[in-house]
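ugh ok fine here u go
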Amino acid sequence: MIGTVDPQTATAPRAEAPRLMLAAVCDCARAYDIATITITYDGAGDEGQIDRVSLAGPPADGEAAPEIAMPHVQCTSWTVPYRGDVSEIETSLESAIEDLGYEFIAQYHSGWENGEGAFGELVIDVVAGKATLEHSTRFVDTDCSSYEWGC
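structure:
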């Protein structure tokens, strides 16, 4: 049953989570005239969090897209329990967006919150139904040199 949702249980394999969650968030966001969702995150030292979620409406003629407030609405989305399949739920749009952000990061950059950590931005083009993740991993580097002299 890979790549499909089981209609009897409303579940799917975890690998399907990003696609299903993205579709659900975009469907809900379109109903509230949201054109772009931007999620920024940062983590290090075994802790990580989404720092900010910003929403923008469609751009006006020749102007930047206006930032809009998060609507407090319910929507149908998907969730991933620890080590489980993805399952359909009713939740708030805000929670659905955060769950989507954490799932995208976890599936493509597991451990992003550990050690020196990482940071990044997930931009969702709601109109096109596409997401772009820009991720930067921090690391400690060592440059070692060795010299020997003789006479």
